[in-house]
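The methods section describes the discrete structure representation at length, but only in general terms. What matters is that the chain and its backbone geometry are given together, residue for residue. For illustration, here is how one protein appears when written out as sequence plus structure tokens:
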Amino acid sequence: MVHADPSQAIPTSSKARAKRRIAALEDELEMMRQERGGKQRKTTFYVAQGRAIRRLVVLYHSLDDLVAENDRRYEFRSSPESTPEQDRLQSGYIELARVLPWSHEKLGELDHEDSEDMLRKLKKGADAARGDDTSTLKELVAAWVNQEFRPSPLINPHDKHSRGFTSDICGGLLCPAEWDWSQDSVRAGIRDRTTEYIVSENSWPLFVYENYRVNSGDLKEGFLKSRLLVLAFKAVFTSPSSARETDGDGDAADIIENNRRARRKSDQTKVKTCVASIINMKKVTPRAIAYIVCQVRFALSSVSSWRTVDGDFDYEAFWCNIVDFFEDVPGPVTRRKVEKLLEWWTRKIFGTNHREDLTPERVSHMSVNALAEQRKKLEDAAFDSD
């Protein structure tokens, strides 16, 4: 038996060797393309999904803080003591898991580096959406104010320097509820930024109240029911055209269903899907309202670029105050009033469609199921009598 010498190569042609090298390089290149394409698709997906975060989850807090608080609660669940700030963060994490259902599981699967990369891309989408909404509302809020109040001169939709407290109209809308903007001393004190008239996040501005009037004896009357807020919410979540069509008055049409029908009917014309449909939003949520209030406040101000602090006014603390109004209630009576307010908002924005409330429990007591149950009992009785 002759043993082969492994040190000896079997002769091959240079052409065949070149072909094989080329084929191997092409395979390697294709793998690199697929890997790059996969990374690009992931980036696009994360950025697109992140656009809901500032609008529905957190306006200022970092996603890392939400994740860290959820981890802390799980690790120390035997002693669940927490501060209001930590409660707010945890509620934010729960809302994140609701808005992006895949996110919680994904964070558990990825290693630290990949999870940090995912959170960075989500933040990129979140900040981009906030910037887009700020730009949109800059012009729209000016148009709505001009239409409703007819100031002279009109508010420039492209320039913010004439807004804020230098404007009689914008100043009146931004004025804290505890002061009377019609008084010369109040206007002068606010404009001169005296210690008697400090405008901060600790006051509710008039623009959040229905008809922009406040009942000092009952501050919850008309609270968060202003026409300006409803218009802004529609412009961001159901399209600017829906704000024009309903003009903020009366009950809204079924925005989601109308949007769906428009897409079905349109064969040649491309119909833009509204934000609410994209994120499957069918009810107004507290943090969405807080987001809109902050956006409108910024649009009315004279500040030209987005920031956390405007003079003595802290937007982050203001956002937290609105969120706490809904989430940190003192008891069941207040909770029911908050639920009623959210029902009012949902009706204003999405109309009277309540299919989301048709739980299996409620459906089981309705007449279709009741009749089916009666027929079944009739058959059972006939069988037992035989």
